[in-house]
Each structure stands twice: as structure tokens, then as C-alpha cells.
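Hi F.,

I've been meaning to write this up properly since the lab meeting, where we talked about keeping a consistent format for the predictions we share between groups. The idea is simple: the sequence comes first, exactly as it goes in, then the C-alpha cells exactly as they come out, then a line or two of notes. No screenshots and no reformatting. I'm using this chain as the first example so we have something concrete to point to.
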Amino acid sequence: MGAGKTTVGKALAKELDLPFYDLDWYIETRMHKKVKEIFDEQGEEGFRKIERNMLHEVAEFENVVLSCGGGTPCFFDNMEYMNGQGTVIYLKCSPEVLFHHLKMGKGVRPLLLGKNDEELMAFIREQLERREKYYMKADNIVDVTLMESPDKIAITVNKVKEIAKREQ
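Output, unedited:
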């Protein structure tokens, strides 16, 4: 969450002339509800089941760039499944940069609602500690800690593009 998956994904899709899908947006379109509404109605467990089903649905599409939510790889067999379906790239980022990105973000993120700065930083550190073991199973890792300007975003996109082309 906040690493730049959507930013890099959209730019990569444009560079490769492929369709881009954000899994959360796909879920919202298919379910006709916002992710927050699904969380409110079904809790995280209900959302994760829907997310898994939608991941499998999108994985059937050919030649697409998909940005998954930060929790997607951590539930069920999602990471193993993704590695088996295509090129998976973990956009690795420091907690401090994630904090900055999430503070500046305009979207509503159900897991962050009501947190002050100290709670947000603690949450980010805890999530990374819990999730890193899943993220590190990705076939590829790209450090995006310094992705703070359009030029640096372009460098990251080029790195990701080279990985994607190499594994096609």
C-alpha cells in the first residue's frame, strides 16, 4: 500500500501497449461496491475471498499489467498463484517513504481510517514485518524507495519493463 503499484503499473502498461488493471478497481466494478463498503459489510475475511476470486478471474486475461493490493499476496495461495501465472514484481519501499505516500494519498483506505501519524507509522512497520515474507516470494524485486519525481518514476518503469520483457 503506497509503494506506487498503480503509478508504475499504468506507466508500464502504456510502455508495453497493454491493458492495465488495478485489482481493487476491478473488484469495485464487478461487485458494484467500493472496497470500503465490502470491508464494512463482510469484514477483511470476506473481502479477501472476493479478492482471491477476482485475482483468478483477471489472471485468465492475456497480456495485461495487473496491480494488486498490498495484502493480496499474503492470503490463501495468492503469491504462488501469481508467480505461476505471469511475471511478478515486488516494488520494495522503506516504511518512511510509504508513510509519506500514504499521508499524501487522497483515496480512502479502509485499513488506515482514523489513524494519527504515530499510529500510521506503527501500522506500516507492522504490516511490512508481517507481509515481507510473502512479498519476498515474488519472482522479481525492484527497490522504489527513491521514486519521488517523474524522472525517477521513469527509471523504475524502465527497470520493470526490462524484467517483464526478459520473462515474456
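Notes:
The first helix runs from residue 5 to 16.
The chain has a mean pLDDT of 92.

If this format works for you, I'll send the rest the same way.

G.
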